[in-house]
Design brief:
Largest sheet of chain B: 7 strands, mixed
Helix content of chain B: 25-40%
Number of strands of chain A: 8
Radius of gyration of chain B: 23 Å
Strand content of chain B: 15-25%
Oligomer: heterodimer
Strand content of chain A: 15-25%
Largest interface: A-B, 88 and 95 residues
Shape of chain A: elongated
Largest sheet of chain A: 3 strands, antiparallel
Distance between the termini of chain A: 45 Å
Radius of gyration of chain A: 24 Å
Number of strands of chain B: 20
Number of helices of chain B: 16
Structural class of chain B: alpha/beta
Structural class of chain A: mainly beta
Order of helices and strands of chain A: EHEEHEEEEE
Number of helices of chain A: 2
């Protein structure tokens, strides 16, 4: 469903322009508000809808297969850590869903540079960052032996 | 290039350049910093890494998790599974490597704040299937991007990388990449000691089923523009299994995923008359592929094959029987949230057509083909394997290095490693990055050499479509029809039509043969010539122009590979009608290609399949 922007709600802040993975949300030069410049390259990913501080962006199902009269609205609340959906069918039925989006504080992830510097010889091992501990297995990182190799149809 | 001679050129030198900030690119960026504390690590992305790549809209499952901590699966089990699903042909060394590391990536995701569902009885991750765990993954990508941003020295968003740079001091060594800023139009020259290509696979090379606005509702993201392949192909890196395109059975029109429906909700398919149909096609399929039909689980392509045959027999549409499962409120919730978490468009289709799966069994369809390397298929670059056990034929240097020195890859870019999905792609990025750090360390003070001529020539090529448009636009009154230029959308639609009709797309029922492929290549040649006349009205269209260039080169590769493999290895994905059966005598092997940019010629060869695991 390509997205569209309500004229009276958009204030031209450009959050949607900044986030759109397809680069199709642009600012109209005359109205100084955002719009979808290329609906046929819209994946309906809702990145712009979720990012809009004014709730100015909505979506209308693709004209070639979606009859009118439906809506799928979303509210993403980073501080609460939830996303809420309201689905409205063409015939008026509604469904509502709420899901968590994150269990930790935004910005709380540590850079790998904050961890102790690995031993010099470990650069040549097969283990990756935080391994083997983070695998949480007793035998360490699994490995195959070269003598296990065989060639043939399996 | 008089018109644009004042364009700014910006130089960014680094030790490791990561191209593409999706799952693989974020993994590569994170791991590069862990091992290379003093290195300059640059990640460049054509969109914004906060929401880029195939995971931009989120995921509701992580499809590659071993569960070694609970002894649920071991890496060799995953190798057997992927090999079976791909009809025998996977790089088992690379697959094992991802499988042995992938759990550590997933454990970090959870620590970082990704909500992973738990089984209330065991406390373990809630399994959707043997390999899949269920997540509330709306913010999967923002979380992973946060870690990558903290690890990178610099992240450059909104820069479309168009070409790789080659070292002029040492043959066959990469030295960086060039591209342009889609907002400012500045030309960027990224010089680097090692490059990790983590770009996207290919949607929109075959004509999609949707005809108008809906063409954006492809199964794979429309921004996956085959840069994963075109960038390495252009500099002569060998590619493998490019014929191994994937066709997907999905909910009709929205291409909503079926995995959770089959595995967790236990829904099943039936034909228009309420009959089970897969078993009907058993003998017929056995004729084509022999014992592969007896494997468990039945390979994805063979289930597609039964779907296609049943439809051709006139007993479509095939439906997913959801009415029973959706009476359970928990299952109904999972069914909807599954879409809202990763394919919102399917929820829209159902809402718009009044399809409530509690009361209606929804239709399924088979998608147009896609070329990619991380789902149930494995197209991509031919890469060196892990040093501790990879066979010598698979090992010529650093792990995940392609056949070009210093050029690494991960995710959709690397071939032969099916079923890595989001977590496996991320993990492969980490594997490639550690190897790249080793490569950079071993280079010591050995400097790359890139002449001004090399990047200036590319600069001229890159911005040519803007000039073509400026000049040609003056010839016509208005509109989109010009005798001197093609718009990117024109070229894209011609490409999709050629691939669809000649290389086994939906209009041809996924069927092709040598004469069709030969004709397809002739038409692709003419399209390639016409790409010199692409016209771009603005920087956004210039991005589209280069995405098209990448798609066309990848498509040419796909067509040559499809021609080379004279068998039908994956019925249900595509058919060589002139060689309708699987042929293990001649074709239990990988196909490799190499492109020569000077001559435009492709060289094809076979490579052995080593079975490491019983």
């Amino acid at each position: 469903m390509p997205t569209f922007v309500y004229m009276t709600r958009c204030d031209g802040c450009g959050h949607c322009v900044d986030i759109c993975p397809s680069d199709i949300m642009h600012i109209d030069k005359t109205t100084r508000r955002a719009y979808n410049i290329e609906p046929n390259m819209c994946w309906e990913c809702y990145s712009c809808v979720k990012a809009c501080p004014q709730n100015a962006i909505d979506a209308r199902g693709y004209a070639d297969f979606a009859p009118l009269g439906h809506s799928v609205r979303v509210l993403r609340e980073e501080e609460k850590g939830t996303i809420s959906w309201k689905i409205k069918f063409r015939d008026g039925r509604e469904k509502n869903f709420v899901s968590p989006i994150r269990t930790t504080k935004w910005g709380s992830i540590q850079s790998p540079a904050e961890f102790p510097v690995p031993n010099a010889e470990d650069i040549h091992s097969q283990e990756l960052a935080h391994e083997p501990e983070v695998l949480n297995v007793s035998g360490g990182l699994p490995a195959l032996r070269p003598d296990q190799l065989k060639q043939g149809v399996v | 290039m008089g018109l644009f001679s004042n364009r700014k050129t910006i130089f960014v030198d680094s030790d490791i350049l990561v191209i593409g900030g999706g799952m693989a690119g974020c993994g590569a960026t994170y791991e590069s910093r862990h091992w290379g504390r003093d290195l300059k690590i640059v990640c460049v992305e054509k969109a914004n890494i906060e929401r880029s790549g195939a995971v931009a809209q989120g995921l509701y499952a992580i499809n590659c998790y071993m569960g070694m901590q609970w002894d649920e699966n071991q890496p060799e089990d995953h190798v057997r599974y992927a090999r079976n699903d791909l009809m025998g042909l996977v790089r088992e060394d690379l697959g094992y490597d991802i499988a042995r590391h992938v759990d550590s990536s997933v454990h970090k995701f959870e620590e970082w704040g990704l909500p992973i569902m738990k089984d209330p009885e065991t406390g373990r991750y809630l399994r959707e299937g043997k390999w899949q765990i269920m997540i509330h993954g709306e913010s999967y990508k923002p979380i992973v991007a946060e870690a990558a941003r903290k690890a990178a020295t610099e992240v450059y968003n909104r820069i479309m990388v168009t070409h790789l740079l080659m070292d002029e001091a040492k043959p066959n060594r990469v030295a960086g990449a060039v591209g342009f800023n889609v907002r400012t139009g500045d030309f960027y020259v990224f010089r680097a000691k090692a490059v990790i290509v983590c770009a996207g696979g290919a949607s929109h090379i075959f004509k999609p089923r949707a005809v108008g606005e809906g063409m954006g509702r492809t199964w794979y993201a429309p921004w996956s523009s085959a840069s994963a392949y075109a960038l390495p192909i252009l500099v002569g890196a060998k590619m493998t299994q490019m014929e191994n395109r994937i066709t997907l059975t999905r909910f009709k029109d929205g291409y909503g995923p079926v995995g959770a429906y089959f595995l967790h909700l236990k829904t099943y398919t039936e034909n228009a008359y309420g009959e089970e149909y897969e078993s009907k096609w058993y003998d017929h399929t056995k004729e084509l592929v022999g014992d592969y039909i007896d494997r468990h689980p039945v390979p994805t392509c063979l289930r597609n094959h039964a779907f296609l045959e049943e439809t051709k027999a006139g007993r479509g549409p095939i439906r997913m029987v959801t009415k029973e499962a959706f009476q359970d409120p928990h299952k109904e919730q999972v069914g909807w949230e599954n879409f809202l978490g990763m394919t919102i468009g399917q929820a829209v289709v159902w809402a718009s057509q009044n399809i409530d799966p509690k009361h209606v069994n929804p239709e399924l369809t088979t998608s147009e083909p896609y070329v990619m390397g991380s789902h149930a298929t494995c197209s991509g670059a031919w890469a060196s394997g892990p040093s501790d056990y990879a066979p010598s034929d698979y090992q010529w240097g650093y792990n995940r290095m392609m056949t070009v020195d210093g050029l690494f890859g991960a995710g959709d870019t690397i071939g032969g490693t099916a079923h890595k999905f989001s977590s496996g792609s991320y993990t492969e990025g980490r594997i490639a990055a550690k190897a790249a750090v080793n490569y950079v360390n071993d280079m010591k003070n050995d400097k790359f050499q890139v002449s001004e001529k090399q990047y200036q020539d590319l600069k001229e090529t890159i911005f040519q479509p803007l000039e073509n448009y400026q000049v040609g636009r003056n010839e016509i009154v208005a509109g989109t029809v010009s005798p001197s230029y093609l718009l990117p959308l024109h070229g894209l639609q011609r490409l999709e039509k050629i691939m669809d009709e000649y290389c086994g797309g939906i209009s041809a029922n996924y069927i092709t043969n040598e004469p069709m492929l030969t004709r397809g290549l002739e038409l692709l040649d003419m399209l390639k010539e016409d790409l010199d006349h692409l016209g771009a009205e603005d920087l956004h269209q210039l991005q589209r122009a280069w995405e098209l260039q990448h798609r066309v080169l990848a498509s040419e590769s796909v067509t040559h590979h499809t021609m080379f493999r004279t068998e039908t290895r994956w019925p249900g994905y595509y058919y060589r009608a002139d060689h309708p059966k699987l042929d293990d005598t001649d074709w239990h092997c990988f196909t490799l290609s190499q492109y020569d940019q000077e001559s435009g010629e492709w060289t094809m060869e076979k490579a052995p399949v080593y079975h490491i695991v019983d």
